Amino acid sequence: KQEVTQIPAALSVPEGENLVLNCSFTDSAIYNLQWFRQDPGKGLTSLLLIQSSQREQTSGRLNASLDKSSGRSTLYIAASQPGDSATYLCAVHSPAGTYKYIFGTGTRLKVLA
Amino acid sequence: DAEITQSPRHKITETGRQVTLACHQTWNHNNMFWYRQDLGHGLRLIHYSYGVQDTNKGEVSDGYSVSRSNTEDLPLTLESAASSQTSVYFCASSGSPQGALYEQYFGPGTRLTVT
Question: Please, what is the average pLDDT of chain B?
Fold first, then answer.
């Protein structure tokens, strides 16, 4: 059974820092992995999706990498800003042939001005 | 622009009542999902549908039902609401007509309180 873990559960950093959020999964047979952002009281906003054949995806200050063999993905945020404060969730699409996602419990990020 | 809408956004109901939460998407996606989000559990899949007339149980389906009569809508029904079903409910859809990415898009959520 696929399990997805995100550590740490919470993180506080000063503005301007580059930071890395981690996502681990137990079964490497994934179809793709998606990173989301969730603001308090809001829905989930898709940030990046990485297909199983890809190593990384970039969007602006965000870069997500995928290492299937080690069961890990990282979300790199460059030059963090207070507006980046939110909960970040990763989800794996597993197994291939279905369309279900398994979610991690998220990392709550606070960027201090 | 395409979107997913959910209604109501907030609902308070009493134990034992039947409740239906609406989900409507204009992405023309085949796949639709209902999740609940609770502290300490993250997002858990309740039911999902791969197309019209197709429904499937997720990991926490007891006490819930769905029906899919068209592409755009997947209403979620709580047959007899229980306090344990107090939660935030999210609807999502995925699947481009080109069948490429299966990126999931989420609605804004419905906060349900069962008293």
Answer: 91
